[in-house]
């Protein structure tokens, strides 16, 4: 049986790069995403190594309905909780509680719900593993105005530690903490060239990360990190 990796937010950016890397390993991927067009493109690119489902991971019923369709050959063996949004920029003095709820629902609650679905339907394998996509923002507080995002990633790291304890020894659970990676989530920052150059200057390796840089680390944690659980691996070009 080949590994089947369920990737939330798998149609674009880091999630899509993880799908490509998983396929290059000879495994298969299930992509859950809200972006129908990019799901279709991933399906066309990866052929029968991928299965795509349009799912909003902040919608528990949608997650449960999608997972009910995954049986037999497509029962997942690994999970990547990757879907995430940065949320609207707002100061603490002007914080909108509804926006905080939205960010936490997509970035944190989704990981609980997708993990529950995974645990109910998974096909057991000795190398079973889960990877959660956190951020260096969990440790440094993130950019000004993105407190909800930073708090969501801190919560995801604590959830990673809790999952690693509860799911051991059957399933290894680790998190990735990327730095500044060149994907759509950063497009507002990248639209401002001066802001982008200021940020690149803070990275010891002097370049933005690429989605593939993170995907390589994800593949290691998924398939090769046989004695590693409950850890956060930073992929940030040295940026703290
Ligand atoms: N790019 C970075 O600089 C960076 C840094 C640290 C952490 N991360 C984290 O990595 C993960 C992936 O980010 P990315 O950079 O690839 O972003 P991205 O915006 O390029 O991709 C995110 C994907 O998630 C999907 N998505 C968003 N909301 C969803 C929902 N409710 N249900 C299902 N799918 C949904 C989007 O459609 C998109 O395909 C996120 O959790 C992000 O917080 C990114």
Automatic annotation (TrEMBL):
This is SDR family oxidoreductase. One of its GO terms (molecular function) is oxidoreductase activity, acting on the CH-OH group of donors, NAD or NADP as acceptor. It comes from Neoaquamicrobium microcysteis. Residues 3-183 form the Ketoreductase domain. SUPFAM superfamilies: NAD(P)-binding Rossmann-fold domains. Belongs to the short-chain dehydrogenases/reductases (SDR) family. GO terms for biological process: fatty acid elongation.
